[in-house]
Every structure is written in C-alpha cells, then in structure tokens.
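Can anyone check this?
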Amino acid sequence: MSEPEVNDLEAQEAGLVLPRFTYEDAWALGGLLVGMARERGAPVAVDIRRGPQQLFHCALPGSSADNDAWIDRKRRVVERYGVSSLLVGARFRVKGTTFEASSRLDPDRYAAHGGAFPLAVEGAGVIGSVTVSGLPQLEDHAMVVEALELLLASYTPGTPPTAGTD
C-alpha cells in the first residue's frame, strides 16, 4: 500500500463530511470499526471524540496501552491542524522534511502518522476525531476511511451500515 498524494487525501476529506454526528452516530461508527477489526483479526484500539468528550473507546485483543498513547498523539494532530494525521505528515514530506523535524511540536505529544481523521459536519466544520491504532499507519487510515464511507452511506434512506452489525 503506497501513501496517497496530498491532493488525494484532501479530496478524501472533502468527500467525508457528515450531515450530523450524534451520540448514536458515534456508537454506529465505533461498531463499524470494531466489526471490521474483528473480521480482519486486527489488533487495534479505536477512539471517537466530539470536542474533548470521548464518546467511544474499544481495545481489541492484541492491542496494548501503547496503542492508546498513539491514539492520543495522532488525535492531537487532528485537533491542532483540523485535518487527518496522515495528511499532516504527507504535507511535511512533500516539503522535503518531516513533521518531527519541522513542526516544533513535542513528538511525545503529537504524531503525524495515519489513523486519526477529523469528524467534519456540514455547516459546523470539524467537531471531533476518530482514531484507530494498531496496524501500519496507512492501514489504520484506510480502516477509518472505510468506516466513515459506510457511515455516510447509512445516512441515505434504505442504506444501513453493513460491517460489524451482526
């Protein structure tokens, strides 16, 4: 899996703006991610936040407290920049540097590695984040994107989310 281009990541985010994000939506998104992870045997931790409030958290077998630390570091990047942690890292790499070398932020508190994604709502902008940790960064990112696509599709009448609902 190769890293997407910056413009592709930007377009991806523009296409994943939700019409709403309620507590029930957080539960549905968390359920989708946990279901996908279980189906794939992925040893991940999942975190969903609206503002500073944690709405969902789950750690699956094979994950560890280190994954929670990675979640916190990647989530802080989304909170600071308002875009996915993968996109932030990619923007630095396009400039010929790294986030760690050029951001002037503490790498013990911030990580521009894939897996944290902004929760953007129409008319409100970024209201929170969803983060997965436990796989290689591109796979963490891809899992979040896949779940957000399923959640977005579920807002269309007659299209229920399909992963992790059994």
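Reply from J.R.: I decoded it. The chain has a mean pLDDT of 94.
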